[in-house]
Structure formats: C-alpha cells, structure tokens
Amino acid sequence: MAISIHIVNYYNTTAQNQPGEGYQLLHHLSEEGIDLVAFTAVPVGDRTQFSLFPKEPTKMEDVARLAGLQLDGPHSAILVQGDDTLGMLAGLLQKLWRANINVFASSGVSDGKGDFGCVLYVGSGQQQAALEVLQE
C-alpha cells in the first residue's frame, strides 16, 4: 500500500451521552448507504460529539437533512493511510512542523498487521499546504 494522503471532509454532530446513541447514529447512516472512512466520538459535558468522515460528503448532507440530523461542517482534515513503519507518524509531523503547519489534533490506529490510518487536523486554510508538504 505504501502511503496515501488526502484532504477529507468531516462533519460534527452531538447526541446525549447514553447507551445506544452511537449505535443509532451509525445504524441509520449505514441503512442510508453512508460509507465512513473515519469516525470519532468524544464526550463533551453530558453529550457526545461525533466526527463523521463520509466518502461522499454531499450524500451525507442529503441524508442528514432528510433525517433532521444537525451537522456542523463540512470541515477539512488530512487522512493518511498506509504501511505502518516505526516512526512514520513522527516523520509526517516533523515535515509539518518544519513547514510551520500546526497539527492541533490527531487520532490514529494500526491494524496490527502492518497498516495504519490517522487523521490530522491542521489550521483552517492550511489543508492544501499540509497536503503538499506531506506528499513531498
């Protein structure tokens, strides 16, 4: 696989922080054919904030509108996927640091079999510059 780097859109929405809320959201999206490339959920007070990274942002907006789901976005982030090698993420972050591009949040995962994925959240308007730096 080597490495794949893309700018992706994501949307935030919140729900009550209680059992079943994540299931209901994800189930509804899957029933409507929404394919997510990434997903996060974090507590915010008595609510949970979901960040949804759909393959097809326009379809996500249409489904949300019809379901009455309030979305904040689209926002942009950098999605990195590829071969998991020791120090890969540190090297990517070093490139961005040297280009004076701030990564204000990130999350990632390794599949334990040699591949990884991570989302890098960079400052507004810096996504294209970050993409160019990371693809060098």
The neighbouring-strand order within the major sheet is 2-3-1-4-6-5
Number of helices, counting only DSSP H or I runs of 4 residues or more: 4
Briefly note the CATH topology name of the largest domain. VC0802-like
Structural class: alpha+beta
| Order of H and E elements | EHEEHEHEEH
Low-confidence stretches: none
Q: How much helix is in the residues?
A: 25-40%
CATH superfamily of the largest domain: VC0802-like
Please summarize the sheet with the most strands: 6 strands, antiparallel
The number of E-state strands comes to: 6
Assign the CATH class of the largest domain: Alpha Beta
**Average pLDDT reading:** 93
Q: What distance lies between the first and last C-alpha atoms, to the nearest angstrom?
A: 17 Å
Give the CATH architecture of the largest domain: 2-Layer Sandwich
Integer tally of domains: 2
